[in-house]
């Protein structure tokens, strides 16, 4: 055991002797190293502190007998304290770290602002890399000067410059965000009035931002100029302000480009999932088919296209509120207006809107072709139509008239059924229009009515079957207003023609009903009277004459009523074709049967009273001859009356004429009795 202890002490002694021999050389070598060295021969630096130096200092503290430490080593140790060395190394590391950050973070457009200061810093740091060592007494002064020049001056100013640029970039980004925000937050189309309100809000907000941020940017640049303490005319400051000005200009151009791109995508519907955003209505205003709001930029009111470009121009003009950082330059608005991308986008937007306008014009023309529905006066046109002034001379009407004239020229000839029906239609449709012999009939027929009503009904159906809405680009076209108006006009035209037919049918059926109501009871009463009389002598002659009168009346009405029923039947079919019904249509359905029954009663009555009338015929003939003789005698006496002589006085003539007047009254009464 003692042997081992002795061997250990000997080994430790030998090691300590070796350490004492080499410690001076090692300390001298490490303390004479420079404070800084470049990293990989680059511009960045690091603290040149050998950690073995700190280890040697610790070894000195743990030497078994400090008195055995050489005097020269003690002299070196008096110059270096381990704690002081650590603090110095930490301060130097802080300087190196900020210098490295400065060199890595500074950007090319900022270097000119810090060229002089960076030169001073590098000149100072060069001392730390070449002349100053860890035992130099000037180290503390070096650290203080480097800290003041780098940390408290250059690095803080660089941070201020970069913070100012960040502020400007954030304001430009806010411009971009505000300008590009969606003007259409709803999936449903909005009225243009709502869009105008939103547009005004965006425009006013953008104007406030442009004015406010423009002032703030100018204030930031002024503060930066004061902080850097450089001349306004120095190339470094002019170059830096030109960079900031270009930053703002590029940001504004980019914001406007993106906003116009978004607007173009909305107008052109480049995304299949996009829906029309602006709601426009097709209306009839002042006798013209128009869009509300107008689509045509030539309209007196502001059009959709003008609204859009007014908004674009306002956004560009508000850039005038932002002052340029470079003097004697055109405004940002002029820069935006002259940018090729902006010009191209505006041209594309204008082209899409022109295409939309053409499509809207085609849609508008589809309704303009019905202008006759509201431009022509329905009642005046119908008056011209019913009077025959609006009808061309047709070959059929001329044929009917020529055949009618031939029938008139031959009194004994019978009118053909077509002529009778044609004349019945004329009398039914236009009884007040003269169609006498020698004139060309231009009165419309029911076929003409059918053509007119069919044309207006076809227009009504075409308008009714048209779509209620249409999507044209970003425009959602509401067609219901114009459809409702045109359907009302078309219905009015159909009503004018059908109402006239209904009124004429009502009048004709009313006259037929009045005739039947007046004739049927009289015939039935006379037949009962004649049938109930025990002898012919008991029957008054007037009863026979009244019955004959009724027979003739019914016979004369036969052809007229047959033609009337034919016309009314044809009219009812025409009205039913267009879903119109008459008030007295039930009477019309029963009237032919009543008319047939009346005619049958007349035939039956004729058969019953014919024998009785034959027996009374001789007496009636004698009575008529006596009545004729009395009339002839009275005529001869009146012709030879003294009242016509000049010798007859006025009083005598008056008395004679008064007597003849009494005789004429008596003859008239007798004539009525003989009937």
Architecture overview:
The protein is mostly helical and 675 residues long. The chain is built from 22 helices and seven strands. The strands form two sheets. Strands 3, 4, 5, 6 and 7 form a five-stranded mixed beta sheet that branches. Strands 1-2 form a two-stranded antiparallel ribbon. The longest helix is centred in the C-terminal third of the chain and has 53 residues, at 480-532.
Could you list some keywords that capture this structure?
7 strands, 675 residues, mainly alpha, five-stranded mixed beta sheet, two-stranded antiparallel ribbon, rod-shaped
Q: Care to give the gist of this entry?
A:
The protein has 675 residues and is mainly alpha-helical. Helix content is 72%, strand content 4%.
Beta-strand percent range: under 5%
Overall helicity: over 70%
**Tally of helical runs:** 22
Main sheet attributes: strand count, strand direction, barrel closure: 5 strands, mixed
Estimate the mean pLDDT confidence.
Answer: 78
Distance between the termini: 188 Å
Indicate the structural class: mainly alpha
Order of helices and strands: HEEHHHHHHEHHEEHHHHHHHHEEHHHHH
**Rg result:** 62 Å
The strand count comes to: 7
Low-confidence runs (pLDDT<50, min 5 residues)?
Answer: 392-416, 434-440
- Shape call: rod-shaped
């Amino acid at each position: 055991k003692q042997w081992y202890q002795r061997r250990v002490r000997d080994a430790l002694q030998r090691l300590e002797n070796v350490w004492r021999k080499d410690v001076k050389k090692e300390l001298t070598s490490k303390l004479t190293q420079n404070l800084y060295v470049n990293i990989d021969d680059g511009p960045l630096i690091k603290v040149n502190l050998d950690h073995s130096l700190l280890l040697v200092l610790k070894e000195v503290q743990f030497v078994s007998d400090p008195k055995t430490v050489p005097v020269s080593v003690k002299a070196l140790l008096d110059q270096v304290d381990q704690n002081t060395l650590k603090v110095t190394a930490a301060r130097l590391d802080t300087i190196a770290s900020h210098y490295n950050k400065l060199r890595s973070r500074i950007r090319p457009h900022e270097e000119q602002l810090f060229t002089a200061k960076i030169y001073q810093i590098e000149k100072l740091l060069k001392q730390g890399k070449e002349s100053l060592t860890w035992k130099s007494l000037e180290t503390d002064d070096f650290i203080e000067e480097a800290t003041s020049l780098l940390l408290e001056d250059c690095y803080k100013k660089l941070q201020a410059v970069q913070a100012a640029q960040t502020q400007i970039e954030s304001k430009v980004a806010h411009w971009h965000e505000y300008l590009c925000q969606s003007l259409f937050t709803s999936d449903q189309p909005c009225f243009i009035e709502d869009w105008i309100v939103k547009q005004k809000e965006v425009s006013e907000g953008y104007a406030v931002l442009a004015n406010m941020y423009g002032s703030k940017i100018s204030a930031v640049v002024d503060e930066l100029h004061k902080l850097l303490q450089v001349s306004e005319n120095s190339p470094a400051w002019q170059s830096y302000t030109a960079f900031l000005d270009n930053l703002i200009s590029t940001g504004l151009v980019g914001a406007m480009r993106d906003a116009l791109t978004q607007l173009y995508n909305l107008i052109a519907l480049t995304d299949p999932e996009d829906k029309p955003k602006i709601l426009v209505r097709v209306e009839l205003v002042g006798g013209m088919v128009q869009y509300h709001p107008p689509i045509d930029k030539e309209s007196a009111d502001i059009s959709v296209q003008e609204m859009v470009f007014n908004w674009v121009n306002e956004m560009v003009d508000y850039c005038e509120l932002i002052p340029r950082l470079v003097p004697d330059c055109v405004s940002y608005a002029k820069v935006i207006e002259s940018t090729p991308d902006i010009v191209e986008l505006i041209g594309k937007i204008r082209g899409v809107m022109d295409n939309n306008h053409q499509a809207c014009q085609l849609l508008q023309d589809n309704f303009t072709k019905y202008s006759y529905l509201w431009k022509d006066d329905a009642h005046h046109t119908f008056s011209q139509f019913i009077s025959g002034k609006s009808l061309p001379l047709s070959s059929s009407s001329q044929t009917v008239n020529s055949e009618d004239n031939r029938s008139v020229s031959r009194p004994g000839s019978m009118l053909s059924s077509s002529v009778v029906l044609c004349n019945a239609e004329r009398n039914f449709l236009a009884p007040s229009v003269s169609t006498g012999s020698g004139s060309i009939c231009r009165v419309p027929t029911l076929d003409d009515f059918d053509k007119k009503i069919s044309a207006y009904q076809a227009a009504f159906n075409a308008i009714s079957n048209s779509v209620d809405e249409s999507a044209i680009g970003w425009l959602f076209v509401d067609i219901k207003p114009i459809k409702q108006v045109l359907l009302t006009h078309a219905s009015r035209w159909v009503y004018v023609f059908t109402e006239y037919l209904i009124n004429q049918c009502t009048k004709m059926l009313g006259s037929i009903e009045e005739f039947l109501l007046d004739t049927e009871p009289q015939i039935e009463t006379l037949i009962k009277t004649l049938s109930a009389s025990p002898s012919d002598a008991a029957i008054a002659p007037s009863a026979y004459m009244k019955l004959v009168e009724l027979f003739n009346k019914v016979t004369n009405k036969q052809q007229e009523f047959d033609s009337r029923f034919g016309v009314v039947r044809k009219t009812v079919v025409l009205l039913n074709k267009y879903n119109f019904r008459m008030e007295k249509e039930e009477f019309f359905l029963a009237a032919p049967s009543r008319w047939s029954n009346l005619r049958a009663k007349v035939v039956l009555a004729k058969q019953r009273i014919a024998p009785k009338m034959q027996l009374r015929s001789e007496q009636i003939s004698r009575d008529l001859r006596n009545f004729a003789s009395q009339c002839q005698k009275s005529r001869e006496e009146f012709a030879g009356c003294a009242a016509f002589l000049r010798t007859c006085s006025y009083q005598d003539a008056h008395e004679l004429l008064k007597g003849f007047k009494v005789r004429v009254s008596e003859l008239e009464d007798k004539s009525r009795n003989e009937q």
